[in-house]
Give the backbone structure.
Amino acid sequence: MEAEKKQIRYDVAIIGAGPAGLGAAIYAARGGLKTVIFEKGFVGGQIVLTAEVENYPGFEEPVSGYHIVEKIKKQVQRFNAEIKMEEVSAISPEGLCKIIETDENTYRAKTVIYCAGAYPRKLAVPGEQKFTGRGVSYCATCDGALYKGRIVAVVGGGDSAVEEAIFLTTFAKKVYLIHRRDDLRAVHAIQDKALKNNKIEIIWNSVVQEIEGDNAIRNLILYNKKTEQNSSLAVDGLFVYIGIIPNNYLVESRIDLDENGFVLTDDNRQTNIPGFYAAGDIIKKVLRQVVTAVSDGATAAFSAEKWIRDHSDQFPE
Ligand code: NAP
């Protein structure tokens, strides 16, 4: 229904309602800019799936990602930024007016802040697809409680894998952490906790080759890269935390990306296209945290506000 699509103008259109998008919305809307956030899934992004966050300032005790997001969302609403649950299907980032298309409407905005985040990388081994939702999970917060008193494995050696392995010990009687090297990537504070937890056993230098079972997972076939031997590990569930892939498909042909597909921005969070900013997990950076995501969002909104001011005499009515 092309003809029925309405044209609506905003100062700032934010793509993605994770911490970066919400942080950007607070700064943009509080700065008096007409602000809209588009979200295709659920408000909050990946952090909603994290059971315990203990390094976000302002909370003395660990809190859930969901709790943090609920608080940020209320702040966004207080400044009257609109949240539209519409999936963006195309963006034209060039020129003074950016065009954002969703299935419902075509929107125009003076600036765009792209905060589309990232999604979990898959193992890509036999059995993964078959057992997804029946033993293979990418979210310990969602599915961990199903494994009370049972045996699970986590794959990965980064912050996510090690943190979630610790979280899973709340339910499981045994948690194997399978890592492809002999050195964890996770920060030392998190590693120390895992190494001291007697429910966690680390299986070093190993990769999952196959996931076997019937109605549910029964075994993992592991390959030890040092000994070059295969072995079988009996588990009831497998949690995969082997990194993230940027959601860049709306912009990949237009915006400069690094070799892994993360968006390149300058210190103002501007991309190679004037008036088009990016923030949060989607950008190339060294530290992916809620605190850096909201900070990126704030910087992008601040930069967008300045860009609009600098070009105010050029925008059509
Ligand atoms: P990550 O830091 O990229 O770690 C991915 C891990 O998976 C690495 O240990 C990697 O091994 C392993 N891996 C990658 N591909 C694999 C494969 N095909 N098979 C087996 N193992 C594989 O990803 P992440 O842990 O999801 O974290 C993503 C970002 O979020 C990071 O910047 C992280 O710091 C941040 N984060 C922070 C916190 C926190 O501070 N509380 C919590 C969660 C996430 P190698 O080590 O050999 O490369």
